[in-house]
Amino acid sequence: MNEENNELLAALDAQPTVEVGSVVTGEVLAIDNDRQVVVGIDGTGVEGVIPARELTSDRDANVEDLIKVGDKVEAVVKMPVTSETTGYSYILSKKALDARRAWEEAASKLNEGDIVEAPVTQVVKGGLVVDVNGVRGFVPASMIENRFVQDLNQYKAQTIKAKIIEINASENRLILSRRDVLNAERSAALAEVFDNLSEGDIVEGKVARMTNFGAFIDLGGVDGLVHVSEISHERVSQPSDVLSVGEEVKVKVLGLDKEKERISLSIKATQAGPWDKAAEEAPEGTVLEGTVKRVVDFGAFVEVFPGVEGLVHVSQISHKHVENPSDVLKAGDKVKVKVLEVNSDKQRLSLSIKALEEAPAREAGSNGDGERRPRRQNNNNNNKSRNSAPMNYSTQEEEGSATLGDLFNLKDFD
Length: 414
Prior knowledge:
Strand content: 25-35%
Radius of gyration: 44 Å
């Protein structure tokens, strides 16, 4: 008996042990009423069970269509069964084994640093779930773009290019980064742009995105900034008021900073400015209607085109003597003016209101406006200051009308 017991103990010791996580082979003994596959594990003398959820991911699948009694099956040992009433010793999973082998196959074909194209299968809170050759991968939200992305749903059902940065088959872990790919592409595009672009060049681009301070223009993989002040010759409050994403625009290169990887652009520099229009449409002698924008001691500034203001000197307001322009004009008044001189290069426009009015008849000894000419005083500095235009705009002679002869009516002395 001792010899028989020793042989029995030796036989039991020779049987392989079943460990959680190991791969076992067995024969399908039965399919019970709970759609569980009962498996006799080879060489162990114990039974395991494969629940339907561990056989396939298809919840509606018929288990008997997938596997039959007598089939040989391989599975991963997931955990021991604690209940003694079931008659089973272990929970097995064929689905986990299939996933592990898919991982092993993927790992044999993929390496960290590889660039792959992966369809986005799901958008989750922390990032994107992608399919890499049948293997589930994950792109964290911080690795999707090289800038912050508010809404990840825009990537749903798209196929993205991403770089593998971590593979761990034992943990079914595949991490990818789209940001790394974008950064590499941007660096290559930047090098090409800085090699081929120069300040002053005019190129075409597409509006990529907008902020409160300007619009970013895609120049072919590289974005340049058009500051809000460079969008139009007219005042722009919000870039979205005049531009839309995807719109194609012409831009002029204002600055290139290779070290900081910045490109400054301008849209308005490619368009005719308001002063170009003034020179073309308002030559000397043209009669225009404008709006008084502001009144100063030496005259009034009248806007005749959007962004174009001309000066009506105090001497050109009326044939009558005007002491203070504010006595005659105020901001917002609509007036007709005649162009006396236009200089688009210096952005100066001299205008006259009185040139459109009939001059009163002159009387002998009068100053030309029907009033007796007062005796000239040598120390009239206040009047001289009021009747002189600022040096940074124009002098009376530059206005083309307030000559010494006009001021002192020298003809009266003939």
